[in-house]
Q: What sequence folds into this?
């Protein structure tokens, strides 16, 4: 993909998989930027993804803590329903969600309309719950004896001990909204609100026919879209793996 994004002319042969000094150019990146405004599209993707991550962490931590440490009637049933939700494909919910978000709430062409359906991630809730269950009960009992309420216990006692879970929640959440196409495509009609994945699709269907090297430009945009995910994995790979191994050993 990277080599294709730097080719002046598309080379579909086997040799095209390798860089050729006479066929390398950076013009494709300038062309895709001029067509869809890469900076604005990246900003939209960042706002969308950041909002989803924030909602996932806030609601996931609260729900995971409640399911792990609070005693209430029906807790097991709630957890079972949460797990069951994970087997329902998002595509089955698209039409009712669209009617709810657009017609009932009037959130078409807005960041909130893009973020709302993904603000709660059941997988993240499950991860947080499992981490909270591993903490000693004595810590919570001591905090309650000292007069701390549940929010203080969560903030001062539980969260500092489950930092690996926060990193895990960010990593498992990031790639989904960053690459999401279907929902932003349905909810946004204004080009200046569309994430990069949607902008690339629009370019391929509307503008690429007039481009000198449309596939090179699309590959250039795809490289820009993939770069943050690759960078995030490269930065946190060692820490993420080591924390997973340590938690497995402690268990």
A:
């Amino acid at each position: 993909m990277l080599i294709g994004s730097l080719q002046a002319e598309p080379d579909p042969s086997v040799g095209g998989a390798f860089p050729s000094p006479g066929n390398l150019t950076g013009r494709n990146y300038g062309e895709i930027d001029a067509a869809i405004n890469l900076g604005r599209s990246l900003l939209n993707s960042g706002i969308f993804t950041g909002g989803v991550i924030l909602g996932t962490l806030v609601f996931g931590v609260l729900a995971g803590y409640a399911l792990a440490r609070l005693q209430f009637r029906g807790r097991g049933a709630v957890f079972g329903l949460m797990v069951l939700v994970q087997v329902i494909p998002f595509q089955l919910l698209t039409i009712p969600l669209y009617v709810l978000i657009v017609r009932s709430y009037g959130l078409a062409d807005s960041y909130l309309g893009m973020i709302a359906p993904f603000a709660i991630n059941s997988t993240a809730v499950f991860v947080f719950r499992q981490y909270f269950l591993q903490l000693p009960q004595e810590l919570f009992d001591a905090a309650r004896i000292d007069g701390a309420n549940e929010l203080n216990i969560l903030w001062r006692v539980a969260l500092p001990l489950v930092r690996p879970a926060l990193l895990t929640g960010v990593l498992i959440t990031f790639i989904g909204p960053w690459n999401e196409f279907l929902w932003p495509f349905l909810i946004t009609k204004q080009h200046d609100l569309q994430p990069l994945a949607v902008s690339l699709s629009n370019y391929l269907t509307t503008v690429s026919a007039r481009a000198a090297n449309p596939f090179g430009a699309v590959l250039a945009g795809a490289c820009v879209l993939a770069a943050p995910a690759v960078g995030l994995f490269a930065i946190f790979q060692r820490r993420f793996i080591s924390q997973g191994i340590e938690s497995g050993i402690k268990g």
Remarks:
- The chain is about 75% helix and 0% strand.
- The radius of gyration is 22 Å.
